[in-house]
Specification:
The protein has a 6-stranded parallel β-sheet with strand order 3-2-1-4-5-6. Strands 7-10-9-11-8 form a 5-stranded mixed β-sheet, with helices on one face. The protein is elongated. The protein has 364 residues and is of the alpha/beta class. Helix 1 packs across helix 7, helix 4 runs parallel beside helix 5 and helix 5 runs antiparallel to helix 13. It is built from 15 helices and 11 strands.
Length: 364
């Protein structure tokens, strides 16, 4: 089962899974999402935002989480959750989920949740999105990872969308198609002729239950070129760049009659990195050249990940201050005739010493 939380999360989940459960605080936004299955409306106190959403306010999302907490904690077990980190609803509700997972003593491997988050492009998106993301990564997500109670975390980025000027619909489709390549690994092991190694559904589920960031990528593999060079050149541009891997998994598909032993150089690469990869080599008759799908698990601390976001957020704040200073309007000096003002005061107050009035006005 797949769950989508918030506007962006619902759209992504519905693209991946026709029966996805979609969660939002806005009835209007829920109704707009094509596809998907059951809809869950998270309630806001006093009904604020039920039609307009959380308006980038993560506190509204956290408030709404309380109305669906029990149901969502049951639905996410062993499943996948999509959300953005910049908006109010997804960030707020998922922050609540992560906080509750953190409090659990231990979660069974089969009940771990696989999270896919869409991060804003810090250089071009709003300061509210950046600030929300910084708080989310350094707070709820960091604590949940430290608890060991999450599954893999995929960090999609909006960078390529803005740099290539892509429509939201096209970019969302690219994200899901990319994820589907990774998720297809155990099925390909079932359907294609096995040549070496093996990754079954249980192996894959165990790998996905690890509480690390997951950077997956795929490309045509040339045995004549070093794997390290090819991996560096073919990082997944839809994701944040990875750190040094702690664990790795790869599926190598070779054409019919191809040499399956080319996988040894890939294993050697990981061995030199002190990583023992899970791997599988299969024969795919539809291919003309070898094709590899590889996943790297890394544990870079979210606190380190937010550095760029914090720098951008600070520059946004400084820009706002400068604009306020630039827009400061100097008030023209107001000339007051003291004698006339004194006469007005005498008329209003009756008999009063004019000199005393002038002295008082002078002090002002």
């Amino acid at each position: 089962m797949t769950l989508g939380i918030g506007g962006a999360g619902c759209k992504l989940a519905a693209l991946l899974d026709d029966s996805a459960v979609l969660v939002n605080v806005s009835e209007t936004e829920l109704a707009k999402v094509p596809g998907g299955g059951r809809r869950i409306l998270a309630s806001l106190h006093a009904g604020k935002g039920q039609f307009r959403g959380s308006r980038k306010d993560r506190r509204l999302g956290m408030d709404a989480y309380l109305s669906v907490k029990r149901e969502l904690l049951g639905l996410i077990k062993g499943n996948m959750v999509f959300s953005s980190t910049g908006g109010g609803t997804g960030n707020g509700i998922v922050s609540g989920i992560l906080a509750d997972l953190t409090e659990e003593e231990k979660i069974a491997t089969e009940d771990k949740t696989f999270f896919a988050f869409l991060l804003p492009y810090a250089k071009l998106e709003s300061s509210e999105f950046i600030s929300n993301t910084s708080e989310f990564l350094a707070g709820p997500l960091a604590e949940a990872i430290d608890s060991g109670n999450t599954g893999n975390i995929v960090l999609f980025s909006n960078r390529l969308k803005f740099e290539k000027r892509l429509s939201e619909q096209k970019y969302n489709q690219m994200l899901i198609e990319s994820l589907e390549v990774f998720l297809a690994i155990p099925e390909k092991n079932d359907l294609l002729r096995l040549l070496d190694g093996h990754i079954d559904h249980e192996d894959f589920a165990l790998f996905c239950s690890k509480p690390y960031f997951n950077h997956f990528t795929y490309f045509d593999y040339n045995p004549e070129v070093s794997f390290e060079k090819q991996l560096n050149q073919n990082g997944n541009q839809l994701l944040l760049a990875p750190e040094a891997p702690i664990e790795a998994l790869f599926l190598l598909e070779v054409p019919e009659g191809g040499d399956p032993t080319v996988f040894y150089s890939i294993v050697e690469y990981f061995t030199e990195k002190k990583v023992s990869p899970i791997y599988s080599v299969v024969e795919n008759p539809s291919l003309k050249v070898p094709f590899i799908t590889v996943s790297l698990l890394y544990s870079r601390k979210p606190a380190e990940l937010v550095n760029d976001f914090n720098e951008i957020a600070e520059s946004h704040a400084q820009a706002k201050v400068q604009k306020s200073l630039d827009q400061y309007v100097s008030l023209a000096r107001l000339e007051v005739n003291m004698a006339n003002k004194a006469r007005e005061e005498v008329k209003l107050r009756g008999e009063e010493d004019v000199l005393a009035i002038l002295k008082r006005l002078g002090k002002l």
